[in-house]
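Appendix B. Chain record.
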Amino acid sequence: MRIGYGAGGVSEHLDPSWLTGDPPWLGLFRSWLSEAIAAELAEPNAMVLGTVDEHGRPATRTVLCKGADESGLTFFTGYASGKGRDLAANPYAAVTFPWIGMERQVHFRGRVSKVDGAETQAYWDSRPRGSQLSARTSAQSQPIASRADLEAAAARVAAEFGGVDGDMPIPPPPEWGGYRLEPVRVEFWQGRADRLHNRAVAVRDGAGWAVYRLQP
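Structure tokens predicted for this chain:
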């Protein structure tokens, strides 16, 4: 099957028959992500995350996908952040990977739950020390008076743990960790000339999946 994109940035094809396996979206998603990386698109694992708060008001922001496997998509953030509060109220979300330079998008919808502590710790241990210190510093999404106050707080935390170049272990903040979106609907979108775009979708249907083409 052809999943490359041509000189004009538009793929020659996208067909629902490419959505195979269990789950049927995973193989094609991994192929497209690999191609986005090879094309040197900026932040190819960036995804726009949409949540809804307790009053039904939506919000979007960009986060980095840190895992994609049979169980879903994983990202990490503060539990008391805006997105964390939304997910506590309504544990469902939508994400979009906007690979505009390749005229591709992939849209996911599904239920979101926290990952376990071991998975959070494993990802935390892989982060640069400076990023760990920043996460310990920031009460994410909460107001702060000035940039100077933020930098002063960062300096205090760095001193507490021996600095950026130190070797003292830095534990993850207690209100920080991972979430996993378990997809129930995944749509692949590929731009085509004259707006006759290709769209293929996989929808969770009981214990299995239904796969079909959508009109543009």
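Further analysis of this model is presented in Appendix C.
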